[in-house]
Amino acid sequence: MQLQIAEHKPQQQQDLTKEEIEIADLQARLESVRVLNERVRQMNEMTMALYLSVQEQNELSDNIWLNTTTGSDYISQSVDEFRLINNLKQSKMALWIKLLCFTFCFLLILLLILTLIIVLSQK
């Protein structure tokens, strides 16, 4: 019986060391899983930050596009207004020239009538 107990003790110690090795291995694996979990969380945070950054860049691009479009519309409107002002100036100048021509013609006709009256009244 003592022989069986003596043989049984080394077997228990061997089983304990195997269990301790397995426990240590499982603990190492658990720690590795925790580290991987933390890395995945950090990568998710970085991905979210990158996504938000891309969204912000898209909004900035949209704003730049809107500003460019608005600016080109404003320039186009300004050019149209400038052309309209030039046309009005030219039209105004043409009207003044016509008015001066009509006034000159009216004065000539008036002078001719007066001359005729004077000539006819002397006879």
Automatic annotation (TrEMBL):
Key word DNA-binding present: no
Listed transmembrane segments: 95-120
UniProt key word Protease: no
PROSITE patterns referenced in this protein's UniProt entry, alphabetically: T_SNARE (PS50192)
Species this chain originates from: Rotaria magnacalcarata
SUPFAM superfamilies: SNARE fusion complex
Assigned keywords, A-Z: Coiled coil, Membrane, Transmembrane, Transmembrane helix
Coiled-coil ranges from the UniProt annotation: 9-43
InterPro entries: T_SNARE_dom
Span of domain T-SNARE coiled-coil homology: 23-85
Protein name: t-SNARE coiled-coil homology domain-containing protein
